[in-house]
């Protein structure tokens, strides 16, 4: 930075008393302003911390560097990284030279205003113009678009819900139809008679010995003779009844 100040001071000593800016002075001032802007905006976090909180009083920077770094830190997140300068505007007063440098940053365009004292030809202040009005307009435009998109989404969801609710009546009809079919099936199932398997009687005409044995057993248990009854058929007894007995 000291070399840049010396480079600026040498040609300006000749024209310090002139209000008009010659082409050579303009070129020198613009070059100095661009170098200063690039130097401040390209600093790393460690370099800015060293300027804001120097580790030694022997390396403490002057007031200009502290204020310039602070101004850059305030707008760095909003503007983004430095990309290029697009032009300079120089105004000369009795005490100062004010250089406004138009700069393109990563996120937005801005301007850097550098003030140089005519007496010592050293920079005294640097400020950043972020174009707050245009930035606010962009934010308002973005907010309006977000609001419009939100309204569209809400209306679409309402239309979908209305359509879905209108279909509930069809769901009810399908449910009633299903219940009706179930009832019809139940009635039909109850109406079908369950066939009862006929009890088959065994013909005992050809099995005389078995009939005689059974008749004798019955007569003995009843204490009577076989002439008092006739065995006409033999049926299979239920096992559960025998077990209960």
Automatic annotation (TrEMBL):
Localization (cell): Cell membrane
Chief site of localization: membrane
Keyword vocabulary terms for this entry: Cell membrane, Membrane, Transmembrane, Transmembrane helix
Transmembrane segments: 143-165
Cellular component terms (Gene Ontology): plasma membrane
The keyword Membrane is annotated on this UniProt entry: yes
Protein name: Sodium pump decarboxylase, gamma subunit
Family annotation (InterPro entries): Na_pump_deCOase
Xref: NCBIfam families: oadG_fam
A Pfam family reported for this protein in Swiss-Prot or TrEMBL: OAD_gamma
GO biological process: sodium ion export across plasma membrane
GO molecular function, one term: sodium ion transmembrane transporter activity
């Amino acid at each position: 930075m000291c070399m840049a100040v010396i480079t600026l001071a040498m040609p300006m000593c000749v024209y310090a008393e002139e209000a008009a800016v010659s082409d050579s002075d303009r070129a020198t001032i613009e070059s100095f302003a661009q170098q200063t802007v690039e130097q401040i905006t390209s600093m790393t976090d460690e370099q800015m911390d060293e300027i804001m909180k120097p580790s030694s009083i022997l390396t403490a920077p002057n007031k200009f560097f502290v204020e310039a770094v602070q101004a850059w830190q305030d707008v760095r997140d909003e503007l983004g990284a430095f990309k290029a300068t697009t032009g300079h505007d120089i105004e000369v007063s009795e005490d100062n030279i004010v250089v406004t440098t138009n700069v393109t940053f990563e996120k937005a365009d801005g301007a850097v205003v550098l003030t140089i004292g005519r007496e010592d030809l050293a920079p005294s202040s640097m400020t950043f113009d972020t174009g707050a009005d245009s930035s606010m307009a962009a934010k308002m435009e973005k907010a309006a678009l977000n609001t419009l998109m939100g309204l569209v989404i809400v209306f679409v969801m309402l239309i979908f819900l209305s359509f879905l609710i209108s279909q509930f009546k069809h769901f009810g009809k399908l449910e009633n139809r299903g219940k009706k079919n179930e009832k019809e099936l139940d009635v039909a199932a109850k109406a079908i008679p369950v066939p009862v398997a006929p009890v088959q009687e065994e013909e005992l005409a050809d099995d005389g010995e078995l009939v005689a044995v059974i008749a004798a057993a019955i007569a003995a248990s009843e204490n009577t003779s076989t002439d008092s009854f006739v065995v006409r058929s033999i049926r299979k007894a239920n096992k559960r009844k025998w077990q209960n007995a």
